[in-house]
Specification:
Blueprint (H helix, E strand, L loop, with lengths): L11 H24 L9 E6 L7 E7 L6 E7 L21 E3 L5 E6 L4 E7 L5 E3 L5 E2 L5 E7 L2 E6 L16 E7 L5 E10 L10 E2 L5 E6 L4 E7 L5 E3 L3 E2 L14 E6 L5 E6 L4 E7 L5 E8 L7 E6 L5 E6 L4 E6 L7 E7 L7 E7 L5 E7 L11 E7 L5 E2 L5 E2 L11 E7 L2
Antiparallel strand pairs: 1-2, 1-31, 2-3, 4-5, 5-6, 6-7, 6-8, 9-10, 10-11, 11-12, 13-14, 14-15, 15-16, 15-17, 18-19, 19-20, 20-21, 22-23, 23-24, 24-25, 26-27, 27-28, 28-29, 28-30
């Protein structure tokens, strides 16, 4: 942004001093507006979810002040539509990071899966959302389901598995692709940075590594893990995809289906959920982002179908969300290459939804888990989210009932995604 000259009727020295003072005040105000949301000095979290409605996608905003079930603040149109699959088959709904917030808590990026676009919003000082100029932006493919932010590069996964678009003969292959994020939040495609994968492989996540310029993805139904280096221009450089090792399935029946991914915050380690066998695989990655398998640990305390994961900011706990029994498996990461199970926490079943995406707030004190309508017989009230309190030892409690999302009505809908901004 270029500041225009200020015409003041002052003497030469006074005028120059006044201009410098005004410039400094404007600059400080700009920095504050970009980097310091008003709630960062408070105790509240602002939670965002997507309705994913085919009648009009919207971003739902809630506030958690820690004293009761989070309060609904409002709904903001995302400028597109979501997806719905009445068969509830594996694939179309299996994705993570449907919406993310930048580290400063000033921009939110969200997918419009049914209209092949990415919505971008400014987050105001009160947590409200304002669409940036030009939003939503084409996603570079069909059925975008996941976004990851690395500096000024946005990595998008286009799943190409929306049932409403499946009869389109011109539908492109599923892909991973990148966009330049400009200071005002607008997006432009990065040239020569689209990596396509096979039809039906169902890519599901755009995970930015905590260590190094790498992106990891899970081609869920294809049984493959993807890894990419991202260069300074935002171009993706694909490493050789790899399947889960056969040794993991020696005594286990089931297809090779990797899903939820998370990296350790301080070490080059990737954790991968193996859905059918209720295991968590542990990988190292090298200076080029290439993966090497270390081991897989079995959920022994009762978890069924691990699908999502998050690691706390200190790197001491791994939280794995089990869709099969709406539970969280808590692992001690004292030995980060050998997670040790310490809690099987079954969440409140009031909503009756299937547990999905999970995020941890910046304080590390709250874990938020989205809950989705999991079958044709479930009601739209299954669309909710859980607020789990993290205790001093890293284990979990659920102090109040799930927050039911105000969506549905006559249109079947399955909410997707969750993210949070809040106090540091």
């Amino acid at each position: 942004m270029k500041l225009q000259p200020i015409n003041l009727c002052l003497s030469g020295v006074a005028q120059l001093a006044r201009r410098r003072s005004l410039f400094l005040l404007v600059a400080l105000a700009m920095v504050a507006s970009v980097r310091t949301p008003a709630w960062s000095a408070g105790v509240s979290d602002i939670i965002y979810l997507e309705s994913n409605s085919t009648a009009g996608n919207s971003i739902l905003t809630f506030q958690n002040n820690g004293t009761g079930t989070p309060t609904f603040l409002g709904s903001t149109p995302a400028g597109g539509i979501g997806v719905f699959d009445g068969t509830f088959a594996l694939g179309p709904f299996d994705s993570d990071q449907n919406l993310v917030v930048n580290p400063e808590g000033t921009l939110l990026f969200a997918v419009n899966s049914g209209s092949n676009s990415i919505a971008v919003f400014r987050i105001t000082s009160q947590g409200a959302l304002e669409a940036v100029a030009g939003s939503p932006f084409p996603s570079g493919g069909t059925d975008p389901v996941s976004v990851g932010l690395m500096g000024d590069t946005l990595v998008v996964v286009n799943k190409a598995q929306d049932p409403a678009q499946s009869n389109n003969a011109a539908q492109p292959l599923p892909n991973y692709t990148t966009f330049k994020v400009w200071p005002n939040g607008s997006l432009t495609p990065v040239e020569n940075s689209t990596v396509s994968v096979a039809y039906g492989t169902s890519p599901s996540q755009s995970l930015i590594a905590a260590q190094g310029p790498f992106v990891f993805g899970a081609d869920f139904l294809g049984g493959l893990l993807q890894s990419f280096q991202v260069d300074e221009d935002g171009v993706l450089h694909q490493n050789l995809p790899q399947g889960l090792p056969n040794s993991v399935f020696t005594d286990e029946a089931g297809p090779h289906l990797p899903l939820g991914l998370r990296t350790h915050p301080d070490l080059p380690i990737l954790y991968v959920d193996i859905v059918p066998t209720s295991q968590v695989a542990v990988y190292r990655y090298d200076e080029k982002g290439k993966l090497s398998f270390v081991r897989a640990v079995k959920e022994q305390l009762g978890g069924v179908a691990p699908c999502w994961a998050v690691v706390n900011h200190a790197g001491t706990r791994l939280y794995v969300t089990n869709t099969g029994d709406a539970s969280i498996e808590v692992y001690d990461l004292t030995d980060p290459l050998n997670p040790a199970e310490i809690q099987h926490f079954v969440m409140d079943s009031t909503s009756g939804g299937a547990a999905f995406s999970t995020v941890i707030d910046s304080s590390g004190q709250w874990l938020y888990v989205s809950s989705e309508q999991g079958s044709s017989t479930a009601t739209t009230s299954s669309n909710a989210f859980h607020s789990l309190k993290v205790l001093a030892d890293g284990t979990l409690t659920e102090p109040f009932a799930p927050a039911i999302l105000p969506i549905g009505g006559t249109v079947p809908v399955r909410a997707q995604g969750i993210t949070v901004v809040g106090a540091n």
